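S1.2 Input.
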Amino acid sequence: MAVDYKVDGRIATITLNRPEAYNSVDIKTLKELRDAMVAFRDNNDVWVGILTGAGEKAFCSGADIAEMLPFLKDNAHTPWEIPETPLRAMELYKPIIGAINGVALGGGLEIALICDIRIAAEHARFGCPEVNLGIMPGWGATQRLTRIIPRAKAAELIFTGKPINAQEAYRIGLVNEVVPKTELMARAQKWAEDLTQVSPLALRAAKEAMIRGYSMPLDEGIKLESALFSYLLGTEDFIEGRDAFLNKRKPQFKAK
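S1.3 Output.
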């Protein structure tokens, strides 16, 4: 399997599993990543995802240049042939934690960017080397980077193709934490466990508001937020959260 998908309680772990190729993305990997993301999205009993790479050298080194780039070129005018993933337009509003266990370059960085929280190992590196191949990022970096870090730093990464280390990624807000590589998965697991303690429906609504609101004028974004807020008021989880607060007990959310 090019992508390993495992569920443990409320948490799904998705692992890019081509360590011999620095977890680069070929067509098989892209399709299996799509399948794993759909399984995660559609299982209401799973609330939080962790996305990582196998081995210690690479989270994902990007597209498999020998196979993926010719495939993308051949399908440039038939985009429906390219598997739907969160790199494009898949609606996936469950929270995802990225455990960046090594290099995240090109498409690998773009996969990291679909995560909501990013934890980096100390030896991780991040970059957009596409310009060195005569192309530009094509899986969302030109759009997501400018929404996550300052535009000037996004331009620096995209225009120069030069990578940055984990500490610089933390300084500019690209990652939430930098930890020793031996602590990476434990830290990602702790983040995931913490997120399973709050309302899953509230998390999904908040993420939807954030993502869809990107492209909206402020007044439209506020309307979207208000609509999602109103939806949550009609859920069982809201009743449970309110009652638990009033009775000073831990809530038992059910994603209903």
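S1.4 Remarks. The mean pLDDT is 92.
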